[in-house]
Design brief:
Elements lengths: L26 E10 L2 E6 L2 E7 L1 H6 L12 E8 L5 E6 L5 E5 L7 E6 L3 E7 L6 H13 L3 E7 L6 H11 L5 E3 L8 H5 L7 E5 L6 H9 L24 E3 L4 E4 L14 H4 L1 H7 L16 H7 L5 H36 L1
Parallel strand pairs: 3-5, 8-9, 8-11, 9-10, 11-13
Antiparallel strand pairs: 1-2, 1-4, 2-3, 4-5, 6-7, 12-13
The structure holds guanosine-5'-diphosphate (GDP) and magnesium ion.
The site of magnesium ion has 3 residues, from helix 5.
Length: 344
């Protein structure tokens, strides 16, 4: 599989802030546009190619987040390593990433997408709004160095302004856009997020209109839209690629996620900054904002300067992160024990 090459600039290289790496004679650079079960598709100056990990990079990977993910820049061989597919030699340093806890029992991170400038959290006027879930996405984005925005889609069906009002009242502070993927209303504002070759990833429940929005931004009906179980069968859609070029900019359509278990704690303070700010006045530096004396957060809550809903949400995420960190410690201990018993 190959096609005409795509310049690194069209793929968003300019935003990466990396010096062009020194390549050996038979090496090239590409960006991961889709990942499926350990195989990848890369786009770059040498075309669109299937690729797999070269053994050397497999040996370097400690956990799943070291493996290539959609949005990654990679160095690859120019020739197939198994008669068919190129070999990915190295994943270049990520400038940002969206991480969540992988499904399964082991506490390991999964990269949903990398080198993303803006994460568009898409909700729609015909689906229930789950503020807790939105806050999870916000923490996930901020924690990975990605700027979040909320996109309220299907505003043509009515009710968009009310949702916007609800989110603002709750204290959510990121930019909010009202869109209709069926008309050009406000899509221009979302398209501006792509200026300068930025990478915009869309996330949110299935059915909210992510793929329809991506198709609009790309200007081509490339992605399958409609109900998830139809899998696009019988529709005249072409690719199952997740990363697409919008010119300017790059759009990533993530598969609908039903839940996001947070991994990065870094975003918590940014998303709940009214709580973080109030906490500066707590009597104890390690105050848990539950029932300690001199807690400025519960006091702010009592006189309604902080919404109690937000505090409940914040404390639930804190608890989850604490559990994750305990689990992680236990997991790493057991991994060490296994390694030690193997080496004796
Ligand atoms: N009325 C209306 N329907 C939309 C809009 N955007 C998407 N849809 C429809 O919603 C359904 C799900 O869209 P899709 O893009 O597949 O959602 P995804 O699962 O988030 O990728 C499709 O039938 C779309 O035609 C919109 O802005 N307004
Ligand atoms: Mg879709």
């Amino acid at each position: 599989m190959s096609s005409e090459g795509t310049s690194l600039d069209l793929l968003g290289w300019g935003r990466q802030g990396l010096a062009y790496p020194e390549l050996r004679e038979n090496e090239g650079i590409g960006r991961v546009v889709v990942e499926h079960r350990g195989a990848y598709e890369l786009m770059g100056p040498s075309g669109l190619h299937e690729a797999i990990l070269a053994t050397s990079s497999r040996e370097q990977a400690d956990d799943p987040s070291d493996y290539p993910a959609v949005g990654d820049w990679v160095i690859h061989t120019l020739d197939p390593i198994d008669n068919r597919r190129l070999g990915i030699i190295k994943v270049l340093p990520r400038r940002s990433r969206v991480l969540r806890r992988a499904s399964g029992t082991a506490p390991v991170p999964q990269v949903v997408g990398s080198n993303i400038d803006v994460l568009g959290i898409v909700v729609s006027t015909d689906q229930e709004i789950d503020e807790h879930l939105i806050e999870r996405y916000l923490v996930t984005a901020e924690g990975g160095g990605v700027s979040p925005v909320i996109i309220i889609n299907k505003s043509d069906l009515g009710g968009g302004a009310e949702i916007q009002e609800l989110l603002i009242r709750r204290g959510i502070q990121c930019p909010i856009f009202l869109t209709s993927a069926h008309s050009d209303e406000e899509l221009g504002e979302v398209a501006k997020l792509l200026s300068g070759g930025a990478t915009l990833a869309l996330t949110g429940a299935s059915g909210v209109g992510k793929s329809t929005l991506v198709n609009q931004l790309v200007g081509d009906p490339v992605l399958a839209t409609g109900s998830v179980d139809s899998e696009g069968a019988g529709r005249h859609t072409t690719v199952r690629r997740e990363l697409l070029i919008a010119t300017p900019g790059v759009v990533i359509d993530t598969p609908g996620l039903r839940e996001v278990q947070i991994w990065d704690e870094g975003g918590l303070e940014a998303v709940f900054n009214e709580i973080a700010e109030a906490a500066l006045d707590c009597k104890f530096a390690d105050c848990s904002h539950r029932d300690e004396p001199g807690c400025a957060v519960t006091a702010s809550c009592a006189d309604q300067r902080i919404s109690s809903d937000r505090l409940v949400s914040y404390l639930a995420l804190c608890r989850e992160l604490q559990e994750l960190s305990d689990e992680l410690e236990e997991y790493q201990r057991s991994q060490r024990r296994r390694r030690d018993s193997r080496s004796t």
